[in-house]
Amino acid sequence: xxxxxxxxxxxxxxxxxxxxxxxxxxxxxxxxxxxxxxxxxxxxxxxxxxxxxxxxxxxxxxxxxxxxxxxxxxxxxxxxxxxxxxxxxxxxxxxxxxxxxxxxxxxxxxxxxxxxxxxxxxxxxxxxxxxxxxxxxxxxxxxxxxxxxxxxxxxxxxxxxxxxxxxxxxxxxxxxxxxxxxxxxxxxxxxxxxxxxxxxxxxxxxxxxxxxxxxxxxxxxxxxxxxxxxxxxxxxxxxxxxxxxxxxxxxxxxxxxxxxxxxxxxxxxxxxxxxxxxxxxxxxxxxxxxxxxxxxxxxxxxxxxxxxxxxxxxxxxxxxxxxxxxxxxxxxxxxxxxxxxxxxxxxxxxxxxxxxxx
Length: 358
Ligand code: UDP
Ligand code: MG
Fold this sequence. Notes:
binds magnesium ion, binds uridine-5'-diphosphate, eight-stranded mixed sheet, alpha/beta, about 350 residues
């Protein structure tokens, strides 16, 4: 893409500096961000239900679909939806960057005063956006959905999810509400604050707690996936868990210090005990096997903690490399800010995209 239009250097947007004068007229009341990865089976139904509920709320709206490198017909379906309804906007990634990054891109582009984030698979009922919007009107700046019940999910998933939230609650410094996903509605000011958080390994629901503001949860029944299979295999869940923990806690790093103190103390006692036993003529601890076991045990522990340090180190390295969070091959319905998110460290990128004709 060589002959892109010159993008004027936008003013940095911070929560102190919200001179968003440029396209106030075009700004919709509500933006809904939907990350989409191989969701061809659900897109028509998603649009039908979403359009119905959003029309019902009576605000102008835009549906910001982030196509996260789908390999199926998702993109062409979105494009034909956009032909019928220009309120459907599309950000097409150059490849799969992952769910959390797709949400981030949606947030970088969304123009609405209130911004909802929802999964494509209709596990989160779009109808709840109406209730969230009401809470927003009452003055809450973050309205998150709390899963009261989960149907159609395996015991294993229920158990791992609950263990995950309990662990996270115990070891992180940020109050991350239990049993919430990324389904939420946030105020534009929260969005602008969150845009300034550009870390690579992102746990969006944690970041949305981190920013503070007036928050409230509303309960809902999580439905079954409308169609298709989960796009979150165990490996991705595991990665998200590690990102969540490393983003919000240093406890794994401290564990090695605690363990080191404990072991130092224990071996001191061991030395004293050995000397005493030796002097009293007892040869109990002198076997080769006991030495080998102790060395292997400590070797194992050291490797584990090296691994933990590695997890943090890799994340530091990723952030230092300062690569863009994502690459957009084309945005439909937005200005083609090709540098948008591409030099993610610079606040100059965090401004509003300007509406352009495709
Ligand atoms: N998703 C995505 N990129 C990915 C994986 C998932 O954009 O690499 C989207 C997916 O299309 C869906 C949402 O993230 O809209 C949540 O995925 P899914 O419903 O499969 O996760 P689960 O509900 O099973 O945890
Ligand atoms: Mg789902």
